[in-house]
Amino acid sequence: MIRKRKKNTLFKVLIYLSAVVLTLYILGPFLWMFISSISPEIELISGSRKWFPSNPTLKRYEALINKVEGARFRTAFFNSLIVATISTILTMFFGTLAAYCYARFKFKGKKSMVLGILFTQMLPGAAIVIPIYLFMSSLNLLDTKVGLILVYTGFIMPVAIWILKNYFISIPQEIEEAAIIDGATTFQILFRIIIPLVTPALFATGLYSFITTWNEFFFALILTGSNSKTIPVAITEFSTQGGVDYGMMCTAGVIGSIIPLVIAIIFKDYLVSGLTAGWAK
Amino acid sequence: MKNLSRKNLITLLLPSFLFIIFVFAVPIFYSIFISLHHYNILLPYHPFVGFKNYIKLFQDSVFWSSLKITLYFVVVAVTIELSLAMLIALLLNQDFKGREFLRVILMVPWAVPWVVNGIMWKWIFNSEFGVLNKLLLQIGIIEKNIKWLGKPFLALNMMIFADVWKETPFIAILLLAGLQAIPIDYYEAAEIEGANSWVKFCRITLPLLKPVTFVALSLRTIWAFKSFDLVYALTQGGPSQGTNLLNFYIYQTTFSHLDFGYGATLSLVLTIIILVITLLFYKFILTEEE
């Protein structure tokens, strides 16, 4: 195999130059938010020409992490952890069962169900949030974690089913056929044979669901209050209540991004395969 | 494909089905019901008003200007995002040192919550202490601070700028996966025929990338129509309604003015707009394939 590629120097320089520009473009804004979060107030608003504070401080992080003024922020952080974790587990469990059905069996109404799944992705949150708000209010589930978990589980279910279904289809059916001949039931096949085979896929889909629910804002804004507020809602409160405290806003932004960022960077390959399995097919 | 016993089928499908029914299906029908009523949450009665809310929509100038702004936002943002993502994907498909690092940091904007994206740019665009003015002053491009979010049209474009940062990487990831799936033999065959890079790009890369590009385009268009978090965190729809995207206008109507009936009407109209555009996309791609 001979690949004749005349990669002249100019081409190489161009590539590295674009790579540097791209790196700055992607990391610059987030780094600036981080730098601002560790800049003392006086340097933040002095209009100084420096790019890094002369006296960096972790005061704001301390305030949010273990001072009284950060109590509500911490509650929001734990609310987010609980809500995102439980909705992800529920979605993965029930979603796997459904996705297996869609991938393997023929049944009446299957086609319209698949269309229905796609249709849910077109609905703007606003079109469903008013009735959900009214239901929640009549069931006394407004501003509760349980209410939010139920809504989120339904909310990400279609996407999870969609991604998982594409994974299940890629598994050769011969494996199951052999098991059927041996007399295994559908559930035995699913839990003993299929699920162990698709563990990476389940993991990828789970991470995707977790990040999506962690970052979700629209439903959280409308359905939660002081008891069950999640982290995205808590972050916006630094900029909308009264005056804007830019330093605290940046600090809250950095803390609120840590979990999804760490997940995305460590498990990049899983997530990319999940995203492409879900959308690129 | 096998058939499954009814009992097993129900056990497998029912739980997830119920969630989807209660979170999507029932609410959308109930929204239609609400839209036919004068539904103010503070009032004890919600009288039936027929299509009055829909008629109101045609006379509502805020709705029309919001629709115009939304269309501008969607078309400009999605066009820039797709073009930029294509360039990034082509770059990351090249062989160079640091490529893996770039692929990893591409995940950063994707993972950052949408509201954090909003507050981050709000601080960067800040007219007094923001880093954008600082940077441009230092290079000498501008002479005095600019109020980036101070004028309606400028603010809308800055909002697009913020959206592009957050959304482009996702499309680039999809396109890159598409690029990597193209067999290298195709390019080798073309090289033997003496094709140059541009010809190879137009004749091999683009046509083979069409399906995934189309998916990315339709997904992004749908999502851009639904933009809310960014508006809320960055501009709250201002100044003078200049960044008041439809989804944000619906939120305000419903939860600030408490007009649930009209809010439901607006949200259904937005749903129909998204639906029609998605169907047009699919019709277009189907006729292309014939």
Q: Could you walk me through the main structural features you see in this protein, from its secondary elements to its overall organization?
A:
The complex is a heterodimer of chains A (281) and B (290). Chain A folds into 2 domains: 9-57, no CATH class; 61-279, MetI-like (MetI-like fold). Chain A is 75% helix and 0% strand. Chain A is built from 14 helices and no strands. In chain A, α4 packs across α12 (231-240). Chain A starts with 8 loop residues before the first helix and ends with a helix. Chain B has 13 helices and no strands. Chain B has helices at residues 6-35, 52-59, 61-92, 99-105, 107-111, 114-124, 131-139, 152-180, 184-192, 197-225, 229-234, 246-256, 260-289. The longest helix of chain B has 32 residues, at 61-92. The radius of gyration of chain B is 24 Å and the shape is globular. Chains A and B meet through α1, α4, α5, α6 and α7 of A and α1, α3, α4, α5 and α6 of B.
Q: Can I get a quick summary?
A:
Chain A has 281 residues and is mostly helical. Chain A has helices at 9-37, 41-44, 59-66, 71-104, 110-120, 125-138, 145-169, 174-181, 186-197, 199-215, 218-223, 231-240, 246-266, 268-279. Helix content of chain A is 75%, strand content 0%.
> Helix tally of chain B?
13
Q: Helix coverage percent of residues of chain B?
A: over 70%
Look at the structure and name the CATH superfamily of the largest domain in chain A: MetI-like
Terminal residue distance of chain A: 30 Å
Low-confidence stretches of chain A: none
Please give the number of β-strands of chain A.
Answer: 0
User: Main sheet of chain B, how many strands, which sense, barrel?
Assistant: none
Oligomer: heterodimer
Q: Give helix and strand order of chain A, one letter per element, not per position.
A: HHHHHHHHHHHHHH
Structural class category of chain B: mainly alpha
CATH topology of the largest domain in chain A: MetI-like fold
Strand content of chain B: under 5%
C-alpha geometry of chain A: globular
CATH class of chain B: Mainly Alpha
Q: Tell me which CATH architecture of chain B applies here.
A: Orthogonal Bundle
* Count of spatially separate domains of chain A: 2
CATH H level, superfamily name of chain B: MetI-like
Overall geometry of chain B comes to: globular
* CA-atom Rg of chain A in angstroms: 24 Å
The percentage of residues in β strands of chain A lies in under 5%
